[in-house]
């Protein structure tokens, strides 16, 4: 019972944490731009292809982009623009081409690629000091980070955009960007900062009659009051937003506000009013995040009304869209609604199923969040380094211009003095001055080199910390994704114990009357023989002998369930480790068996594990937690490589002063062209969302840390073998 209680508390803890995480990354509040129509007129493309003048073609591509930003048909044309700009060595044209590529990839929802080209455009426009385009770039970067669910970078880019638009007194953009910063802080859970920026945006909007920004700011304030639990005030703000929509043609803004009012009514336990506004959104919006959010709210409202068929129909629609866009945060919301519906239906099996999916999804959320933070640190560090380098180059350029000007003046002076017969004196002075100037330059360069060395040391320390964070992040994510399998795996032995206890109770009820009757006998009873006969009759009526024979078997089943539970808990304890940062002796067979226990739910009933453990393998002096993680990563990859049924061979042996561990699978194998990339950070052959490319990179680092080596032998279609060699040390 204690084990079952522990499992229940674990589920509740993960559920609570995932709720907090989902609240911190709710993206319903961000204004999504209206989409342009995709161009279908082939006449313009034929005219473009017929142009012979490259510059005229460059300009016409710009015209097409304005009409069809959502068409990948234009990708090759934009790359032509970039090639043309490079051939002319024109910095403005190159910046313009990079900007076009960034906007095209953004509008085709390839946000990571768009950010790469926005950065390239940003660096050139900075050197050109084109502030108006820079403010647009920073705002569009913030939108890309919004869809990638990276709020820290969203706030960072918008703050830069506000600086540029404030300098040129662009009131409309200032109000819009301040609201964006407030929304970013809201999604980060920094509500005081969010309220400050939203109020600043609202003040500017009301003063300058900026209707559209007023609508979105009031609506965002409604979300703020909803988040802090003041639902009536939240409804009031949403209705103020609705008030500013009257008589104005803002169809998308109207749908967003309607969706938020529906959410507020649901929070006030008014499902019918909530459904009224949900239906407005569903009837008038195209497939997308907005419509998906309305599906989720409608499902919750119908569940509140105990209309389970409609609740399931709406949440199924939301689930289909969420899987299509592969959003971890939206998927978390969908799993929660499923669990709530089946909880009200008392379908415990389905509740456990979706709770397990929640746990696995939570592991992915942790991994994604940590990876995003580490990537953002690298991006910001790179930007700072670029700006510093750019400033140094500008300073060096100014110094060179001054030196060139001084050189010209000295040449003129030299000519005048030579005419006066003082040529020798001037030459001597000139060379003395150059020597002194060179000495000064050398001194300054030495100082700069010293400062750069200090910066490199600091960067190295940061990289070491980041490596440690990556290792911990991968381990936490592994535990999160294993939790679902472990929960399922531990459920079976607990069922053994639970069923055994119920059987014992029933058998005890059968033998209890007989025992009570025997206990009531007295040695001097005159009717002793009659009582004994009645006891025999009672034994037959209550199946006494059958119950007595069944009890040992039931106790054996209970012991089997308890032993299996203890085995799983021991495996978790071995994997998680004691947290020591010291090496200690370890039995590698125990580590391999532990990994197999934790991964059993991934391979049971389809993959046969064949163990060829060597005899008299000595203990390995190592960091057990790290070695266990390396074994777990490699075995997990072997399981993933096998589609359907297959085999995994695990062999250990002692060679000279080394322990050799071989893990071989009968999977699909690896192409020889990519074997050398297997241990590169972030390289993965798995589908999107199923791998980060960190597992084998971290495994390689762990083995190197132990002065070991790892070799990969693979043949496509036949399988892969990882051979790990670890030295024995005192």
Task: Provide a descriptive summary of the structure in words.
- With 730 residues, the protein is an alpha+beta fold.
- Among the domains are: 48-148, Tetratricopeptide repeat domain (Serine Threonine Protein Phosphatase 5, Tetratricopeptide repeat, Alpha Horseshoe), CATH 1.25.40.10; 498-576; 584-727, Heat Shock Protein 90 (2-Layer Sandwich).
- 74% of the residues lie in helices and 6% in strands.
- It contains 25 helices and seven strands.
- It has helices at 2-24, 42-50, 54-67, 75-88, 91-107, 111-128, 131-147, 151-167, 171-187, 191-207, 211-227, 231-245, 251-267, 271-284, 289-304, 308-325, 328-344, 348-419, 423-519, 528-541, 544-576, 588-598, 600-603, 624-641, 695-705, and strands spanning 584-586, 607-612, 620-622, 646-655, 658-665, 709-715, 719-727.
- The strands form two sheets. The protein has a five-stranded mixed sheet, with helices on one face. Strands 1-3 form a two-stranded antiparallel sheet.
- Helix 11 (211-227) runs antiparallel to helix 12, helix 11 (211-227) packs parallel to helix 13 and helix 17 runs antiparallel to helix 18 (348-419).
- The chain is extended, with a radius of gyration of 35 Å.
- Mean pLDDT is 76; it is low at 1-39.
């Amino acid at each position: 019972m204690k084990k079952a209680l522990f499992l229940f508390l674990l589920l509740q803890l993960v559920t609570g944490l995932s709720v907090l995480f989902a609240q911190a990354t709710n993206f319903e509040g961000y204004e999504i731009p209206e989409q342009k129509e995709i161009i279908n007129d082939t006449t313009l493309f034929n005219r473009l292809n017929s142009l012979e003048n490259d510059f005229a073609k460059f300009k016409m591509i710009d015209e097409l982009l304005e009409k069809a930003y959502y068409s990948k048909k234009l990708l090759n044309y934009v790359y032509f623009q970039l090639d043309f700009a490079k051939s002319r060595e024109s910095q403005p044209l190159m910046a313009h081409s990079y900007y076009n590529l960034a906007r095209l990839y953004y509008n085709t929802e390839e946000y990571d690629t768009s950010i790469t080209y926005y950065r390239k455009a940003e660096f050139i426009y900075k050197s050109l000091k084109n502030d108006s385009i820079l403010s647009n770039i920073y705002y569009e970067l913030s939108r890309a980070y919004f869809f990638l669910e990276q709020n820290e970078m969203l706030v960072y880019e918008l703050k830069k955009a506000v600086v540029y638009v404030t300098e040129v007194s662009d009131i409309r953009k200032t109000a819009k960007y301040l609201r964006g910063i407030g929304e970013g802080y809201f999604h980060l859970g920094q509500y005081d900062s969010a309220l400050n920026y939203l109020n600043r945006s609202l003040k500017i909007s009301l003063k300058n009659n900026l209707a559209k920004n007023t609508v979105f700011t009031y609506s965002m304030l409604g979300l703020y009051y909803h988040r802090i639990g003041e639902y009536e005030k939240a409804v009031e703000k949403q209705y103020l937003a609705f008030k500013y929509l009257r008589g104005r043609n803002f169809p998308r803004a109207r749908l967003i506000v309607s969706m938020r009012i529906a959410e507020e009514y649901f929070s006030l336990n008014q499902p019918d009013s909530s459904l009224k506004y949900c239906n407005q959104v569903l009837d008038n919006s195209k497939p997308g995040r907005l419509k998906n959010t309305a599906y989720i709210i409608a499902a919750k409202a119908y569940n509140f009304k105990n209309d389970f068929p409609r609740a399931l129909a709406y949440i199924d629609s939301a689930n289909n869209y969420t899987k299509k866009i592969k959003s971890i945060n939206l998927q978390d919301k969908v799993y929660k609604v499923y669990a709530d519906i089946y909880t009200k239906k008392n379908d415990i099996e389905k509740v456990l199923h979706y709770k397990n999916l929640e746990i696995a999804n939570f592991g992915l959320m942790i991994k994604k969040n940590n990876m995003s933070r580490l990537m953002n640190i690298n991006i910001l560090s790179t930007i700072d380094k670029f700006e510093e380098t750019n400033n140094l180059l500008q300073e060096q350029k100014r110094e060179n211009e001054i030196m060139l000007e001084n050189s010209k003046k000295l040449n003129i002076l030299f000519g005048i003095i030579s005419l006066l017969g003082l040529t020798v004196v001037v030459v001597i002075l000139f060379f003395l001055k150059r020597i002194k100037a060179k000495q000064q330059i050398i001194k300054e360069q030495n100082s700069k080199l010293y400062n750069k060395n200090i910066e490199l040391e600091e960067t190295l320390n940061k990289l070491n910390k980041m490596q440690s964070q990556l290792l911990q992040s991968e381990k936490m994510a592994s535990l999160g994704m294993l939790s679902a399998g472990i929960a399922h795996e531990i459920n079976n032995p607990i069922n053994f114990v639970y069923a055994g206890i119920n059987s014992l109770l029933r058998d005890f009820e059968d033998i209890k009357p007989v025992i009570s009757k025997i206990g009531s006998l007295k040695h001097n009873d005159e009717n002793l023989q009659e009582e004994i006969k009645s006891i025999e009759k009672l034994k037959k009526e209550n199946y006494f002998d059958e119950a007595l024979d069944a009890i040992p078997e039931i106790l054996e089943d209970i012991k089997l369930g308890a032993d299996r539970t203890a085995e799983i808990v021991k495996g978790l304890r071995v994997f998680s480790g004691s947290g020591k940062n010291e090496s200690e002796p370890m039995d590698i067979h125990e580590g391999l068996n532990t990994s197999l226990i934790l991964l059993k739910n991934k391979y049971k009933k389809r993959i046969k594990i064949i163990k060829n453990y060597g005899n008299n393998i000595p203990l390995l002096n190592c960091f057990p937690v790290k070695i266990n993680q390396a074994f777990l990563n490699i075995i997990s990859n072997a399981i993933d490589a096998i589609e359907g049924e297959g085999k995994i061979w695990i062999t250990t042996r002692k060679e000279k002063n080394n322990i050799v561990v071989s893990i071989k699978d009968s999977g699909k194998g690896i192409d020889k062209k990519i074997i050398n990339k297997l241990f590169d950070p972030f390289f993965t052959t798995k589908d999107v969302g199923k791998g980060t490319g960190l597992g084998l990179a971290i495994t390689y680092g762990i083995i190197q840390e132990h002065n070991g080596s790892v070799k990969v032998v693979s043949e496509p279609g036949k399988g892969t073998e990882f051979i790990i060699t670890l030295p024995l040390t005192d």
